[in-house]
Design brief:
This protein is an alpha/beta fold and about 625 residues long. Helix content is about 30%, strand content about 25%. The protein folds into 4 domains: about 15-225, P-loop containing nucleotide triphosphate hydrolases (Rossmann fold, 3-Layer(aba) Sandwich); about 235-310, Elongation Factor Tu (Ef-tu), domain 3 (Beta Barrel); about 320-430, Beta Barrel (Elongation Factor Tu (Ef-tu), domain 3), CATH 2.40.30; about 455-625, Rossmann fold (3-Layer(aba) Sandwich), CATH 3.40.50.300.
Amino acid sequence: MDIKEFLDQDQKKDLLRLLTAGSVDDGKSTLIGRLLYDSKKLYDDQLSALERDSKREGHAGDEIDYALLLDGLKAEREQGITIDVAYRYFSTSKRKFIIADTPGHEQYTRNMITGGSTASLAILLADARKGVITQTKRHTFLASLLGIKHVVLAVNKMDLVDFSKEVFDKICEDYRAFTMTLDIPDITFIPVSALKGDNVVDVSSNMPWYHGKSLLEFLETVQVNADYNFDDLRFPVQYVVRPTLDYRGFAGTVASGVIRVGDEVMALPSKKKSKVTGILTSEGEAQYAFPPQSASFTLVDEIDISRGEMVVHPDSIPHVDRHFEAMLVWMDETPMDSYTQFYIKHNTHSTKARIDEIKYKVNVNTLEKSKIDHFELNEIGRVVVTTNKPLIFDPYKKNHKTGSFILIDPVTHNTVAVGMILDKIDSSHLSANITDKEKEQIVKSGSLITAEQREKRYDQKAQTIWITGLHGSGKNELAYALEKELFDQGKTVVVFDGKSVRSGLSRELDYSPADRAEHLRRVAHICKLLNDQGIIVICSFISPNEDIRKQVKEIIGENRFKLVYMDTDIDFCRKNDNYGLYKLADDGKLDHLAGVDEQYDVPERPDIIINAGENGKGLERILGEI
C-alpha cells in the first residue's frame, strides 16, 4: 500500500467522539493513558518523557503513571486529579477517536458539560471497591441530560478485589437499578484494571468469567452512525455565497436529514418553497449531503434566504416559536439575575431572550427537585424561556443541533449557560398570564411588579429631586447637569421645569397663586406616577409658597422627596436672568414674580442648600445622597 492509498483509507475512517468521567482517583486518566500506551499510539519521545515523569511526579509507585499523559496542568499533576477538560486524538486501523477527559469534582460540572457536548459515547468509571457512588450517579445523569445514547460503565481496579465476578455483578445490578429512570438506551459493562491493562486493549486472562469485548474492541465496533437523525432535514443557513453573478448558493452545515438534488425544500420562517438544483461539498459537486457535512446548494427560484434562517422539507417542519421549556446548566461564576435579557445563540441565529420561570432545580447528586429563584455556578434546572424573535427548533431529544442553545451575558459577553430544549410551551401556560390571585392584587395596588423589583431592574432608588429658588438662581442649569450625570451612570431619569410643563400639561393656567398651586399639584402627581414606575424625577420650579411645597411632598411621599434650596439673593438672580423676566416685572408687564411683587418663602428644612454660583459642589452633594 502506497502513502496516498494509506491516507485515502485513513480519511474514510469514521470518527468517534467520547468522554470519560469518574470520581476522584477512579483512574479515568490512567485508563486513557493505558489505552494510548497499549495500542502503541505514543511516539518514542512521549514514552521517554512518560517514564521520566512517572519517577518524578507519578502516583503509581514503581509502575508507569499513565495518567500523566492527560494531566497536563501543573495543579493536576501535583494533586493527582483532573481539573480541566483534556482532549486526546488517536486512531486505530478501524476508527479515529477524540477523547475528552473530564474532571470528576462537582464544582467542575460545567467542564463535563463542555467536554460531553459533542460526544456520542461516555465511559464512566467506577471503583470496584466502592461501587456505584454519588459521583457515578451524577455523571450518569449529566450524560443522560446531554443525550448521550451509549454509556460504558468501566468497573476499574478489579485487581484490588481479586477480579471478583460477584463484586462486578453487584455493581452492574446497582447501576441498572439507578438508570431505570434515565433515558440511556445502550449501557455496556466492562471490568478493567487500568493500571495493569486488563480488558483495556486485550481481553484479560485474569477474568475468564467475562465473555465480552475489551474496551478498545468495543470502541472500535460500537455503532453510532444510527444516532444521527437522517429523517428530518435541518439546514441552518450560515451565509449566502455569491462568487459570480450567475451563482447564488446557501452555505452551512447539515444539522440533520439528507438534502438531495431535485428535493422540494421550504425556507423558514418565510415558508417559501423551491427545488434544489445543485449541491457542492468539500469534494466538489454532489447529488446529496448529509450530517455533519458542510455544503452549499442552489435553488430554482430566487427566494430570499439569509443567515439565521433554516431550510427543511415541507413534510417535516420544526417548531417556530418564541416560548419553550428547556433544561439549563448555569456556567458562569456570577449568579443568574432574573431581570437580565440575555443574548441567545441558536445555530446560526441570534436574538434576545429572558428566563420567564424556573420550574425547578435538579440536585445532580440525588436527582431531587427543588424550587429556586436563580441559578448559581454548575446548577441545573428546568426553565421557561421567551425570545424576542421566534426560533426554529426541535426538542433536543429529537435533534441535538436544533435543540441546543447558549445564553450570553449582554454586558460581559461571557457564555453564562447552555440549554437543551424540551419542547415548545403553549402561551396559555406561561407564567406571565394573570392568575386569580394576581387579579386581586391588581385591584388593590394596580401593579404586579413591586418597588423592590423595579429598583433592582433599574439599579436605582426612585425619588424626586425638587429644586426650588428664585428665577435666575441656577435651578435649571443644576437640574439638567444632574440629569446628564445620572444618565451617564446608566440611570433612568426625567426632568420637569416650568417652561416644559406650562407648554402642555398646565397650558391653561396663569401665574396667580391659585393657578400656581394647581400647576404644582399636577406636577407632583406626575412625579409620583413616575416614581412608582422606578424612575428618578428632577423638578426645577420656583414654588415660592412653603405650604404648597409641603403639599407636593405629601403627594409624592416623604421617603421619595428631597428638597434642594438654591440660596441666592435677588441681585445674583437679576444678573443671571436669561429671559428678561425681572425687567418685565419692573416695567409692570408681568405679575406674580417671586422676589418682585410676590413673596418667596425660604424653605424651613430643606435637605440640601446650595449657595449662589456653587452648582458644581451642589451637584456632588446631590449625587452623594441619591
